[in-house]
Amino acid sequence: VVAVVAVAVLVGARSAAADNRPVVIWHGMGDTCCNPFSMGMVQKKIEKTLPGIYVKSIEIGTSTGEDEIAGFFGNVNTQLETVCEQLKQDPKLANGFNALGFSQGGQFLRAYVERCNSPPVYNLITFGGQHMGVAEIPHCEWTNSTLCELMAEALGVGAYVDGIRELSVQAQYFRSSYDYQKYLEKNIFLADINNENEQKNATYKKNLISLNKLVLIQFTEDTMVIPRASEYFGSFKNGAMAEVIPMRQHPIYTEDWIGLKELDSNNKIVEMACHGDHMQFTMEYLVDNVVKVFLDN
Fold it and tell me: Which of 53, 96, 104, 164 qualifies as a cystine partner to 120, CB 3.0-4.6 A?
């Protein structure tokens, strides 16, 4: 009898794990979908912790080489359209999924929620996402130095210059605190998904407030994302790079351009800290704070 009960418990546990919502991962700059030392490791850890779960790691292009290049060069709007179609065509995702975005993958997955969300996202977790952009060129440590230096050279010419603003991925979320008006006029991605333009897209708010949880993880010693408050939807005050406007004092929240205020009023925003520099987290942190809390459902 004891043996039968033990088997039943084991089978039940496996069945529960197999019933977990799938997980979609989008990597950051300089990474790839399947790097065994980064996203590949993350995927395996999730699969080991929740046996039977389906994990899809987003790849742009037809190879990891193309995927890495796409993290630096390309039109994010076009990439997002491709990803929307990829996810829509995957039958294993048909009933929805949890989404885990790393670095720039965080704001890209948020854009997926706002613009597509078919199939729908349940919990959106972003690790060091630049939701309010960056005010400085990201440094090239921990990335492909050749590609990153080409990106930095292009941004050095100007993030809002025709030909660069459509080509450099990082230019598409570069948010100058000294020339906000030009940012609004020339930026082709971030200003839109943040509903910063005069004409607001009501669908963006409608889709974002459909989330069960929006989890924002900030790296406490981040030297890559300037300002690091961007990871919590904060930004520099216009005309300066010293004073930071936190999310709850920012018009994106107070005027509820994309639904942050409504999410917050319903206790659906979770802000977490990860001690260390950009993307410097352990698998233990991932499992204890994210997988077991936000993906086991």
Answer: 96
pLDDT of residue 181: 92
Annotation says 222 is catalytic: yes
Tokens of 165: 């603003």
Is the separation of the CB atoms in 258 and 248 below 8 Å?
no
Task: Let me know if 103 is a catalytic residue.
Answer: yes
The residue annotated as part of the active site, out of 27, 131, 250, 278, is 278
Closest CA to 129 of 115, 144, 143, 108: 108
Catalytic residue among 103, 168, 177, 230: 103
**Tokens representing residue 88 in the block:** 């829509």
pLDDT digits (tens, 9 = 90+) for 174-225: 998 888 999 999 999 999 999 999 999 999 999 999 999 999 999 999 999 9
293 near 212, Cβ under 8 Å? no
pLDDT higher than threshold 90 for residue 67? yes
| 278 part of the active site | yes
- ∠ CA 29-31-33, nearest 5°, is 120
Q: What is the pLDDT of residues 29-55, one digit of tens each?
A: 989 999 999 999 999 999 999 999 999
- Catalytic residue among 222, 230, 250, 256, which? 222
